[in-house]
Structure formats: C-alpha cells, structure tokens
Specification:
The chain is mostly beta strands. The protein is built from no helices and 17 strands.
C-alpha cells in the first residue's frame, strides 16, 4: 500500500521519489505562426479598415506588406489602413522579422460620385410647374453592368410616388420650400449627391 507522506513526497514503487508536486498551467503558442485578421475584407475607395496581427513577437517591429504599393510598420499589433488606397485587390502579409504570415486578400472597390441636377424646370418654379430631377454618376469602375439603386430624399411630391429611380418628376403639389438629395448604391458602395433646394413661387400667368 502506497500513501502520501507528510513531507509532500509520494512514495512510488522502484524507489523513485518525486519532489513536492504543484499544478502548473501551460499555455503553448507556436512561435512560427503569425495571423492577419481584417475587420473588413472588402471596402470602398476612400474608406479604411483595421488589421489585427496575431502571434507576432511584439518586442520587434511588425511590418505590414500590401502588394502592390504599400508597407506599414508599427510596434503595435493593430493597424489602420490609409484611406487613399486605389481601387484594386491587395495581398497582405505581416512579418516580425523572423516569421511571415500567410497572405490575406483585401478588395478595394472603385469609388463613385453622383450629381443631382434639374433637367426640366428651375429651383424657383411657379406653382403650376412640374420639375424633373436626374442623378448623374461618375465612377472609375470598368463594370458596365452595374445595376444602380437610387433613393431620393425626401420622397414627397414625386409624381409617380417612386423615389427609387434615376429621374424623378416633382409635381405642382410642392407648395413649400423643399430640398432634395439622391443616394446611389452600386452593389458595393454608396454615394450621396449635392442638395437641390426649391422655393415654390406663385402660379404662372399667360400673357
């Protein structure tokens, strides 16, 4: 019969004496593994995202490599990418000088801009005049099949009650001062237009 001695030693067959024991928690990390994690793996041109580098030796400088064109260095594990990245696909790796992570991919979608304009009528229309507004889009995208989604705000006084179209007609029920703006979505990015204000005048008179 074997028993625990009062000295804290365990009497084990074979005359092997172990020292006093303790419970030790061991945390193991593979020192050869660096991981790059993106907050967003797809962004729009002109915006930014954050990158977290995990597993690097933080006593060393961490270098973030974006192919093409950008290298960033930091003593911290959290990077904020610049908002001037051109549209395209970037492969991103991180290195602590000893080890390099596997690449991850970041897609930057082309930016677009939208201009709201009056194509019929004026910004000081008479009370019985309809007004036509249109949204003109400028983009660097080569995708000619983009299906744009439009939203005119506010959605009042639109002749067919449909604010989700490129062109809208404001009917002569617009009797007060109003300001209109259009928002456009191309499936990846949003853009907002300038604001067009109106001040309805009196009814026109035929002379």
């Amino acid at each position: 019969i074997h028993h625990l001695k009062t000295t804290g030693e365990i009497d084990i067959p074979g005359d092997l004496i172990l020292p006093p024991y303790s419970l030790t928690r061991i945390i193991y990390r593979n020192p050869n593994t660096i991981t790059v994690r993106l907050t967003d793996d797809e962004i729009c041109e002109g915006t930014t995202t954050s990158i977290l580098v995990q597993g690097a030796n933080h006593s060393a400088t961490i270098t973030l490599n974006l192919t093409p064109s950008h290298n960033l260095s930091s003593s911290d594990s959290l990077f904020n990418l610049p908002n001037n990245l051109a549209a395209g696909t970037y492969n991103i790796t991180a290195s602590d000088g000893s080890f390099t992570s596997d690449p991850v991919t970041l897609i930057v979608h082309p930016a677009m801009s939208v201009t709201a304009s009056i194509t019929s009528g004026s910004d000081t229309p008479c009370a019985d005049q309809d007004i036509t507004l249109t949204a003109d889009i400028t983009t660097t995208s080569n995708d000619t099949n983009n299906a744009y989604t439009y939203l005119w705000v506010p959605d009042r006084h639109i002749l067919d009650n449909n604010p989700f179209q490129k062109n809208i007609v404001l009917d002569n029920s617009l009797l007060t001062t109003e300001a209109y703006q259009v928002f456009v979505y191309d499936g990846q990015c949003w853009a907002s237009s300038n604001v067009i204000g109106f001040d309805r005048g009196p009814k026109s008179i035929d002379l």
